[in-house]
Write a structure and sequence with these properties.
Elements (H helix, E strand, L loop, with lengths): L2 H34 L9 H11 L7 H22 L4 H20 L4 H32 L4 H5 L6 H4 L1 H14 L28 H23 L7 H23 L5 H30 L1
Helix pairs in contact: 1-3, 1-9, 1-10, 2-9, 3-4, 3-9, 4-5, 5-8, 5-11, 8-11, 9-10
């Protein structure tokens, strides 16, 4: 099997199986959250039932541009995962992810709904909060492996990136509370019922449009968990088991935080995220750079 065939297979596997894995992750999230709250919880496959029901409902669009923006949002999320699993440049991967989120914001603001517009504004604030840490993650991988290429990072010999980048890992896991829309940073929209903005940025999405958003989030969640796994993967096949365990533990901790923390205001989110980025992420990268120069 040549390199290009292998890349094509990985990309095809992501396109086909990511929404299935992402839907199951959402089901596990609901089930664990319910048990933490002393409830039985919905069936594991409930997210799939919800999306199927949404696809059958009537779609009420404020304008055709809104549907167009959502389709581009979904396309860019899928494109982001394809770049990652194809082994391409991490900077390009994260740039595509940011671009996808911009189209979601455009779709929300095109409705001119006060709830959706306010949710979109909060989404922009969230992006300003977590983007520095996302960029720092790419820089950290470069310093640890001397490359931005995902494929070359995976084929690295020796210790995994986590050994050199524990602070960057913690910082990236910290901002996942924003990306996965969990407490205490689910300001723009929420999977919980007690949101004063109703559903915030997704308020005006109905039927097929809301189903598109849910499927896009499934793709995105699988990609984000894969980035976490990248901290542990090396050329050693056993490293994949370590990565899977680490991702599972981190995901459980994120669910635990979601169910034990109150939602913060945007100023506190912005302040806490930047402090975490500077203190943990930048300090880790700085120490790694100093140690690398001493070795050279």
């Amino acid at each position: 099997m040549n390199r290009y065939t292998e890349i094509a297979l990985f990309i095809a596997a992501y396109i086909l199986f990511a929404p299935i894995i992402g839907g199951l992750m959402s089901g596990v999230d609901r089930k664990i959250s319910a048990r933490m709250q002393g409830r039985q919880g919905p069936p594991l496959l409930q997210p799939f039932y919800d999306v199927i029901k949404l696809l059958k409902k009537e779609t009420v669009a404020v304008n055709h541009v809104q549907i167009f923006y959502l389709l581009i949002f979904l396309a860019f999320v899928i494109f982001t995962g394809c770049l990652f699993f194809g082994g391409f440049d991490l900077l390009l991967v994260f740039f595509a992810l940011t671009t996808s989120n911009i189209f979601l914001i455009l779709a929300a603001t095109s409705s001119h709904s006060p709830y959706a517009t306010l949710g979109a504004n909060r989404e922009l604030v969230q992006m300003l909060s977590y983007e520095p840490m996302v960029l720092l993650t790419a820089v950290g991988f470069y310093l640890a492996n001397d490359t931005f290429k995902v494929r070359e990072i995976i084929e690295t010999e020796g210790v995994p990136a986590f050994i050199k980048l524990p602070g960057v890992f913690v910082g990236f896991a910290f901002i996942l509370t924003i990306k996965l829309r969990k407490h205490p940073f689910d300001l723009s929209t929420s999977h919980h019922a007690h949101q004063e903005l109703v559903k915030g940025i997704t308020t005006e999405f109905s039927g097929e449009m809301f189903a598109i958003v849910e499927i896009a989030h499934w793709y995105e969640n699988v990609f984000l968990m894969s980035v976490l796994g990248l901290f542990f993967v090396t050329e050693n096949p056993l490293s994949y088991l370590v990565a899977f365990a680490a991702v599972g533990i981190t995901y459980f901790v994120l669910i635990l935080v979601d169910n034990t923390c109150a939602r913060l205001k945007w100023r506190l989110m912005f302040k806490n995220t930047w402090i975490t980025t500077v203190v943990i992420g930048v300090l880790n990268v700085f120490i790694l750079e100093v140690l690398t120069r001493e070795v050279i």
